Amino acid sequence: MMPKSSTYSIQAPAAVVMVRPHHFTVNTETAADNRFQTGQEPSEDLARRAYDEITRAAETLERHGVAVHLFEDTGEQTPDSVFPNNWFSTHAGGHVALYPMKAPSRRRERRGDVIDMLKARYRVQDVIDYSGLEPDGLFLEGTGAMVLDHIDRVAYAVRSDRTDPIALERFSTHFNFEPMVFDARDADGIAVYHTNVLMCVATDFALIGLDMLTDATRRQEIVARLERSGRRVVALTTDQIARFAGNALELQGRQGRILALSTTALAALEREQIAAIEDSAMLLALDIPTIERAGGSVRCTLAGIHLTPRG
């Protein structure tokens, strides 16, 4: 019998976009509400390490059968360009979304050559651009702000300045998702800035920092919804979330589904949690400690491509 993880899943893309930075630094403009950032002065050594980490991560993914479209960022005005999942997403049926970003520096990350590549290599029917909401202060930072269940059509979203309810409602209507909004706070009571740091929805399981969800009723509703969709819920502790254990992405590799996460995240997982994940997907750890200083981990560096290839 063919292993479960080798069958096609709309949840697990077989291709991703990554951006390799040439002048990486930690974005001071986003530090106010991103508690995952670790400040460090810009330096050539920091930039070189970040460049090397993305290079090795892309090579590792490709060795495992994931197609990586690697773009270069040689600019010095886009410190978070290494996290492309925030400014665009792709969807089955040939749909692409462009998102409104809170920080002005992040708005400069949107680039036409990425969209042109998608149109050339994949079947793209339309591009819906929400960036016009920025002057009104309405932000929705892509699959950072939302964790999308492509199977059950649910958009899980932590309430924050980077996830405006009006923008979320527009996206959900256009792309046929049901929004499930909730509040989440860290150990110090600070609101979580992005949903994908505390939650990962894969084909057969979901990782989630349940202790961080402040409303018990909503917590039960989310667990019930995930379990009703046939998923095993793997609860992560607040400490594990702080070590990026929730910032992972399921992908389709050459020999089955894989869960891409960082070496930091893998080291934070307990043996039982690892076993639960490995029932469905192979764990693939990527070493990106320099990138993680900017407040995001592996999932943030990967913009999954849920489009049909041409030819």
From TrEMBL:
InterPro entries given in the database record: Amdntrnsf_FN0238 (IPR014541)
Stretches that traverse the bilayer: none
High-level lineage: Bacteria, Pseudomonadati, Pseudomonadota, Alphaproteobacteria, Hyphomicrobiales
NCBIfam families per the UniProt record, alphabetical: citrull_CtlX (NF046062)
Name of the protein in its database record: Amidinotransferase
Matching PANTHER family: AMIDINOTRANSFERASE
Any single Pfam family the record assigns to this protein: DDAH_eukar
Xref: SUPFAM superfamilies: Pentein (SSF55909)
Natural source organism: Labrys monachus
Superkingdom of this protein's organism: Bacteria
